[in-house]
Amino acid sequence: MANKPMVFDKYRVFETELAGRPLIIETGKMAQLANGSCLVRYGDTVVQVTATASAKPRDGIDFFPLSVDFEEKLYAVGRIPGSYLRREGRPTEKAVLTSRVIDRPIRPLFPKDMRNDVAIVATVMSVDHDCAPEIAAMIGTSIAISISDIPWSGPISGVSVGLVDGEIVINPTSEQRKVSDMATTVASTDSRIAMIEAGANCVSDEVMYNAIMAGHEANQKIIEFIKGIVAEIGKPKFDYPSNEPDHDMFEAIKAFAEEDIKLALDTDDKTVRDERLKPIYEKVHEKFDELYPESEAKIDECLYKTQKFIVRRWLLDEQKRVDGRGMDDIRPLASEVGILPRVHGSGMFTRGQTQVLTITTLGSVGDMQMLDGIDEQESKRYMHHYNFPSYSVGETRPSRGPGRREIGHGALAERALLPVIPSLEEFPYAIRMVSEVVSSNGSTSQGSVCGSTLSLMDAGVPIKAPVAGISCGLITEGDRWMTMVDIQGLEDFFGDMDFKVAGTHDGITAIQMDLKISGLTPEMVKEALEKTHKARNYILDEVMLKAIAEPRQELSPYAPKMLTTTIPADKIAEVIGKSGKVIKEIQAACEVKIDIEEEGEIGQVFVSGLDIEKCRRAIDIVQTIATDPEPGAMYLGRVTRIMDFGAFVEIAPGKEGLVHISHLDVKRTDHVTDVVNVGDVIRVKVLEIDDKGRLNLSRRDVLIEVDGLTPENDITAERKPRRDSGSRRRRPPRKD
After folding, report:
1. What mean pLDDT is predicted for residues 376-392?
2. Which of 212, 232, 378, 578 has CA atoms 20 to 30 A from the CA of 476?
3. pLDDT digits (tens, 9 = 90+) for 702-727
4. Residue-by-residue DSSP string for 611-624
C-alpha cells in the first residue's frame, strides 16, 4: 500500500516584523488537539505554544485555575543536559520567572467566575539569542488563547525594552543587552499597560516612564496583527457554568453582616481582625446554610465580596484606610543590624506587621551558582533566596520547599540589589542572601529589599548605594481611581494593583507590577512612580540609614578572607598540576581554598581562608610557580633536604634551590643543622640561576638586607653554642 502525503487543510502562515526582525506565526499544523495552538518563529527562535481548557469546571475551588509553563529544552541551544539522567528536570529559576511574567498580564482577562482548568504550555524548541524566547512565548500565548474557544478578553502583546547609550531600544539584541542600563518587559492590551517587569541601573523615573510608554506603543502593532489572525481563524468561545454567587444571596448576606464586618476590619492589627471575623463567619453560616444548602463555598465567597465592597467604599468614598492611615502614609518602620552573632551579616526590616530578616553569607568564587539553562548566562555570583513560612501569616501549612511565589519574590529582590553589588574585582566574593519572612501583612518582597540592604552593609559589602523598596496600590471604579502607598494585606487582596518599585536615592533598580484589572493608563503609571520615589527616599533617610549609615569597614571574623592575583593563562596548568596535585598541596599546606578563572590571556586566582597570613602564603606560592625566578627575587620556602654542604629549599611545588652552608647565616656556620632543619620555613634570595636552570639561594643576604643583621649585632650568636670538630668547647674555670 502506497503512503499518501499528509495534507494539513488548516495550515496557515501569518507574517509581520517586530523590532526589525521577522515574526512568523504558523497554525493548523502542530498540536491540533489543543483548544488553541501556534508555532512562533522570531528570527531563528522557535516556540510552540498551546492553550488547553478542561470540558468541565473543577469542583470545590474558589479561584480560576490557570497554569502557565515555560519549558526550556536544552536541544534548543544544542546542549545535552548536565544531569545524571541527561534529560531536563524541574524548571530552572529563569523558566519559573518567565512563566510568572506571562501569567500576570493574561490572568485578569479571563472571566473571574470561570472554574474550568486552563493550561498554557510554551515549549522553547530553538533559540536565537538576538530574539528572546520569552517575548516569543508571550506573543504566542496571546495568539493561542485568542484563536481558541476559551473565553478571554485579549489579545495582549509584550516586548522587551532596553536603554543603550541613553537611547531606548525595543527587543535589544544579545550584544545590546550586555551593555543596556535597563531590562524592562512591558505587556499591553489595545488600550492599557497590563504588566511591567523591570531591572535597571538606577535610572530616573522619567526615563523609566518613557521606556514603558515606548514598549506600550510597540505592542499596539502586534495587537493589531493578532486581531487580524483571530478574524481569519478564531473559534467561537465556549459557554461555561458561572460560579458567581446568586445576587439575592449576596445582598442578603451583605445586609446581615455588613456592619459587623465593618467593625471587625477597622483595626491595624491583622491578628485582631482575623479573630473578629471568625464569629461573624460562624453566625452567617448558622443563618444561611439552611437557606442555601450545599452552598457553603458560595456563602464564603459572599463574605469575601462583602469585605471587598467595604474596603473599596472606604477608600474611594471616604479616603479611609483599614488601619486609619492617610493615602500616602507609611506604616511604623524599624531597622536593626547585627542580630545574629555568627553569620557574616544580618539585618531586619519591619514595616507594620511585615517583618523580614535577611542573612548575608560570603563565599569563595567557587561557590558561585552554575546555571544549566537556554540563555547565555552560565553562572551567578550573587544569589538571593526568599522563604515564606506558613507561621508568618499564622497558618499551619507544612513547608515543601520554595514555590513559584517564593522564587519570584527572591528574584525581584535580587534584581533590585544587583546594580549596587560591587564587581568581582572590587569585592572578590560570592554572595548569598536569604530573606526569612518572619511576619507578613503585605509587601514582603519590598521588605526583603530593605532588610537585604541592611544585611549587606552589616556584612561589610561595599555596595554602591543603599536600596529601599515600597509598593503602591490602586482602586478603580469606572473612570474614578486613586492610589495609596504601602499597601497592607487587605488592600492587596481587595485592591486592583500591587505596583512594587525598588531603588536608590538616584533612581529605579527594579519594578514588578501585579494587576487584577485589564491594565493601567499612563497617568496611573506616572503617579505610582512619583509616590514610590518619595516613599523609598523617606524609608532610606528616616529609618535604614539611621540603623547603619554605611557598610562596615571590616568583615566578620567568621567570614572568609579573600586575596586575588593574576597569572599568565599558560601558567594555570603548572599551578594546578597533574590531576590537581599541586593546587591540592597548596590548599592543604595553607588551609585555604583556591579558585582560578581563565579570561583570555589572564588567569584570575582567588584565595580564601579564615587566616589572612595563610592566604598570603598561598598567594606567594602561586605567584612563585607562575613566575620564573630571577636573581634578586626573595621567596618564602620550606627546607626539604639537609646535606653537609647546605640545605635544599623548595620555594614552590616543583621549584627547589640550594642554600650553600656559607649562605645560611650572617656568621660562620659549621653545621647546617645549627641553623635549619627539614620542614623549617625560611626566607631566601635567588643569587643566580646556572646554565642548567638550577637555583642558588641565600638566607644570609635576606638577613642582611631585610633584617639588617651582621655578625656583630646578631643576637642569635650569643644563644647558639659553637661547635668545634663535633665537641663542645669548655670555658676555663673562673678565678676569684
Report:
1. 93
2. 212
3. 998 887 777 666 544 444 444 433 33
4. -HHHHHHHHHHHHH
